[in-house]
Amino acid sequence: MTEPLLKxxxxxGWYGESHVLxxxxxxxxxxxxxxxxxxxxxxxxxxxxxxxxILSKRTGSVVYSGTETIGMEPxxxxxxxxALCPEERGIFASLSVEENLMLPPxxxxxxxxxxxxxxxxxxxxxxxxxxxxxxxxxxxxxLAIARILRTGARLLLLDEPTEGLAPVIVQQIGxxxxxxxxxxxxxxxxxxxFRFAASVADRHHVVDQGRVVDMIDGREIDAxxxxxxxxxxx
Amino acid sequence: MFELLGIPPQVLxxxxxxxxxNGSFYAVLSLGLAVIFGLLNIINFSHGAQYMMGAFVAWMLxxxxxxxxxxxxxxxxxxxxxxxxxxxxxxxxxxxxLDHLYGLLLTFxxxxxxxxxxxxxxxxxxxxxxxxxxxxxxxxxxxxxLPNYRAWVxxxxxxxxLGTWFMIEKTRLGAYLRAATENPxxxxxxxxxxxxxxxxxxxxxxxxxxxxxxLAAPIYSVNPNMGADLIIVVFAVVVIGGMGSILGAIVTGxxxxxxxGLTRVFYPEGSxxxxxxxxxxxxxxxxxxxxxxxx
Lengths: 234, 295
Ligand SMILES: Nc1ncnc2c1ncn2[C@@H]1O[C@H](COP(=O)(O)OP(=O)(O)OP(=O)(O)O)[C@@H](O)[C@H]1O
Ligand SMILES: [Mg+2]
Known about the structure:
The complex is a heterodimer. Chain A is of the alpha/beta class. Chain A has helices spanning 44-52, 74-80, 97-102, 114-120, 122-126, 137-146, 167-182, 194-200, 225-232, and strands at 6-15, 18-28, 33-37, 58-64, 67-68, 82-85, 155-159, 186-191, 203-208, 211-217. Chain A has one domain: 3-Layer(aba) Sandwich (Rossmann fold), CATH 3.40.50. Chain A is built from nine helices and ten strands. Chain A has a six-stranded mixed beta sheet with strand order 6-7-8-3-9-10, with helices on both faces. In chain A, strands 2-1-4-5 form a four-stranded antiparallel beta sheet, covered by helices on one side. In chain A, strand 9 (203-208) and strand 10 form a beta hairpin. Chain B is mostly helical. The termini of chain B are far apart. The complex binds adenosine-5'-triphosphate and magnesium ion. Chain B: One of its GO terms (biological process) is amino acid transport. Chain B: The chain crosses the membrane at residues 20-43, 55-80, 100-118, 149-168, 199-220, 232-259, 265-285. Chain B: It holds the Pfam family BPD_transp_2.
């Protein structure tokens, strides 16, 4: 078996004195879409932030494409080929839609061309001159995803991209993730919307109290429904 | 000849011109402060000293190296900007983790040191600096006499302000700057070197102060206190315009210069304090400043 693209081992993380990640372990193989599922406060966002280096007080090991990144600063981790779509979306109010889209610098070849991105998100093209935060919630989410597709990053960390969005937009984001998969992107998806997660992902990790407590293959999800309901408390 | 409230037009226009020239310095200096405050969240108290350095470096370039005004207009801001770069790199950058008050204290201390050093070496009497030949003389506009150099100061300051505004609001580099002002962590997580951007932004703001200093050299005598007197007014301008607002700094700078000029015509006793009175009123009615965003 080939080495995973991302290998997270015994990842611990702190906000100041508050210890929130207690040894996260999981792998992501190239081209996979995997989820991190879990209740509010389980540590899903913190895991993504720790991988990105934004949660800077962290220990353990995060190996991306053979390179240990645990001691790196966020900008160097980004340059390895990892990109984050944050939970709060992070659209810049003082930038136009187009400026938001073009903000992340290209770090490698192989990103999506601009016209491909506008094919995926026609609304963004129409509204490219608007102020970034004047977009609707769904459009802002698309913008937050779109801008990390052109940089050449191969591993995308998407934090609850469907949160608070209307069903048709959730579907559009679902189709986008399918497209990204066929384009060869690798995706770590944090989700509360379990049904959505089941429809797009190859594998699911259940996070609870700062640990990965279970892993469920996408094909075995029906057999594990009861267990999942218990984990997620739905 | 028209007369306005018994005031001869020559007097009115003369004072307006004087106001516009003062406003030019207010605008360039408060713009530099606004650029720095926007990204660093630090009120750069050494701005006045750096303005003074701009004038002094121009004078030194001429006195010691025979380098004239036009080269000094480029070289002096670069030199002063470089000192700002070092200050940020080796001192200011160490304070970002602490309260912003520490940055203010540091820049205040640095201002006192710089002014003290220059006072020690050059005294307080002031050094004359010649208007460059190209800009000596003036134009008789019929209703008033316009010295060429003063017209140039207004033009040069407008160019500097518009150039800075354009760079920040309309270019890719400016988009980085605006984004980093909003959310430096996310901008860093995109792979952008934010610490270097902060360093260069500080250096740029300081270079603007140096540029204003060179413009000022032929008008005011080059002396160690020239910045300390001016900067108090400029801080008031920044407060009125709103911290961190680029356009606000520019518009308020020129506007207040003109208001000051008008006050000198209609109520000369009030001209020295009018800006501070406006500041007090703005602070009461719209504390975030005329162009500032309330948080
Ligand atoms: N900035 C912060 N400072 C201190 N503690 C934090 C901070 N952010 C999160 N936490 C704590 O860390 C723990 C994990 O939070 P995290 O945001 O990673 O959870 P999550 O799984 O993403 O939850 P949600 O589904 O609500 O987004 C929680 O106990 C939370 O209270
Ligand atoms: Mg979260």
